[in-house]
Amino acid sequence: MTALVAAILPFALASLTRPIGQATVPLALGLPFLLALPQPWLIPSWYAIALHVADVLLLLNLAAVIVTIVWLVRRRVWKWPARGAASLGLVLITVPPGGLVPNVVSPGAGLIAAQVGSSNTFGTTLINLTIDGTDASCAGVDRTAGIAFANIGDKTYDTFGGTIQQVVVRNQYGCGTSDGIIADNSFITVTANVIHDIAANGINQIGGNSNTNNNTLQICNVSGIVLSGVTGATVNANVLSNNQYGIRLDSPNNVTVSNNTLGPWVGTAIYVVNGLNTGITGNKIKSSWAGIWLTASAGAIVRLNNINRTAIFALGHTFSAGANTFTNNTITESRFGIYAYNPAAVTVADAMVPNTFLSVKQTTTADPWVPE
Q: Based on CB atoms within 10 Å of each CB, which residue in 62, 99, 153, 272 is the most buried?
């Protein structure tokens, strides 16, 4: 009987991972132990019945072991260590010894050598990774990138064709045009990432649509976030500093930029070229060269922004296409409050009041480049 208990014990311990095992193991181990006691302690008429009970309990243990094995296989427990490491952000992707190779063709950016690339699919999800581009070379391509997406999802996916979440992208200097994340004709969500030390743009979206929110971007030599030819995108609650442009929009259509924190050490915090119906609201800008600058744009709403300590001007609208609204913004400590240069007449004039100016040397100028 002692041998029987020893044989059952490993299976019983495994069975404890399942409720059925938790119910049967105490009985399975306890009763056989009692049966192993000296027979004078037992009533002889019980003994034969007890042996049958022990056999039944052994079968229950074996069944519990089988259930446990099936449960472990179905959940692929051999992958748990990697998943645990990923949940702690311990998965590090570096440049391979042979260097980067071209792996993504972008309609708008050309051939890209990316550390992580995905194209012509949907549902691509990257989460809890660290992507380090140290020692990357130009690889004979148009640009390199930490992450490159091309043709991920389509309009029917809105911004759910792919996801980049809780990823650190850093040290992307393989080419002068190296980006942290580049997405071309993709419909994705980019959220809660940290991106820093980038040769060109932290996040570069070309066409498609995106929800870019709650990211932190630092030391991007061109733009923290740049969107080109994008319709309906949102750029919300990001934190950007040490970038030539904080957020740049080229030919955007119905794009919303809201509740972002920009600065210090940003050249132009928010810059919009050829925009249509751009919403810029609730952003906080500090210690930049210029605050919010729109050129050749129409139908923009710029309101409720707080702009502090700009070196040249806080609000700029040049070559206006008309119907822009700049109201209820608070401007503190700037050489010029508003830079307005619009030589051509427009059908619907821009609305420029009311705004609040505190410690501003000159409220409005048509030439901010005049020496002090």
A: 272
Neighbour order of strands in the sheet with 325-327: 124-127, 162-165, 187-191, 209-213, 234-236, 256-258, 279-281, 301-303, 325-327
- State pLDDT tens for residues 157-194: 888 999 999 999 999 998 878 999 999 999 999 999 99
* DSSP letter assigned to residue 231: B
Q: What is the pTM of this model?
A: 0.77
273 pLDDT above the threshold of 70: yes
Strand partners, 168: 130, 194
Question: What is the Cα–Cα distance from 225 to 247, expressed in whole angstroms?
Answer: 5
Give the whole-angstrom CA distance, residue 265 versus residue 170. Answer: 19
Domains of the chain by range and CATH?
2-75 (no CATH), 99-365 (2.160.20.10)
Q: Would the pLDDT of 76 be above 80? A: no
Q: For residues 29 and 16, is the Cβ–Cβ distance under 8 A?
A: no
CB 228 within 8 A of CB 271: no
Is the pLDDT assigned to residue 8 strictly greater than 80?
A: no
Query: Does residue 42 surpass a pLDDT of 70?
Result: no
Count of Cβ atoms closer than 10 Å to residue 363 Cβ = 13
User: Cα-atom radius of gyration of the chain, to the nearest Å?
Assistant: 32
* Residue 203: closest CA among 260, 248, 151, 143: 248
Three-class SS state of 58: helix
CA distances from 293 to 25, 246, 283, 348 (A): 72, 11, 13, 19
Question: Which of 214, 205, 164, 212 has its CA nearest to residue 183?
Answer: 205
Please classify residue 346 by burial: count the beta carbons closer than 10 Å to its beta carbon, then call 0-12 exposed, 13-18 middle and 19+ buried.
middle
- For residues 149 and 32, give the distance between their C-alpha atoms in angstroms, rounded to a whole number: 62
pLDDT one-digit tens code per residue, 285-328: 999 999 999 999 999 999 999 999 999 999 999 999 999 999 99
CB 163 within 8 A of CB 189: yes
pLDDT of amino acid 35 = 52
Indicate whether 43 pLDDT > 80. Answer: no
